[in-house]
From TrEMBL:
Membrane topology classification: Multi-pass membrane protein
UniProt protein name: CDP-alcohol phosphatidyltransferase family protein
Family of the protein in this entry: Belongs to the CDP-alcohol phosphatidyltransferase class-I family.
PROSITE patterns the UniProt entry points to: CDP_ALCOHOL_P_TRANSF (PS00379)
Species this protein is from: Georgenia faecalis
Localization: Membrane
Entry-linked InterPro entries: CDP-alcohol_PTase-I (IPR050324), CDP-OH_P_trans (IPR000462), CDP-OH_PTrfase_TM_dom (IPR043130), CDP_ALCOHOL_P_TRANSF_CS (IPR048254), Phosphatidylglycerol_P_synth (IPR004570)
Membrane spanning residue stretches: 20-37, 99-123, 135-156, 162-183
Amino acid sequence: MSTQREVDTVVDRVWTIPNVISVLRLLLVPVFAWLILSGHDVAALVVLAVAGASDWLDGFIARRLNQTSRLGQMLDPAADRLYIFVTLIGLAYRELVPWWLVGVIVLRELVLAGMIPILLRYGYGPLPVHMAGKAGTFGLMYAFPLLLLATVPGAVGDAAWIVGWASALWGVGLYWFACLLYVEQVVAIARRERGGRTWAGPA
């Protein structure tokens, strides 16, 4: 996990190439929402693929050009969560996935949101995203195109349904595992701050 010293090396730059890419990805969210709700699955898959590629690209550029920023650390997970939420709502609305799956994801976000006031109370911003959270996001983003593809009749649709649900369940599991790690870090911060000690980073 990242230490506080590593967090402090992240600068407060705004107009960087990775951040511009992240903003463009966010602007595609309403377009993607309309496409998936209206049943334009091919176009929705294209937008989702572009969003996924841009997610990798902005991270690569940030590391390569040393343009990592605090704004970027907030934009990236925000964009990922929006795409996940919009896709889930669209698929549930079209009865391609059950609504309980939406509930599980939303509950996780509510738990994370409940950690924000605690961090702000002790003067901390958002903590670095854990690798398990990134893996869970990847699993969910990989699952959604497959669940859309599952509507195709025949062997292709059947295979997409199996692999898609396997990816979705793994993604949810990793998503919640990362959430619990995040909660553990926040609790550790609160305990150390109440004890009057300086936090040296998550264990």
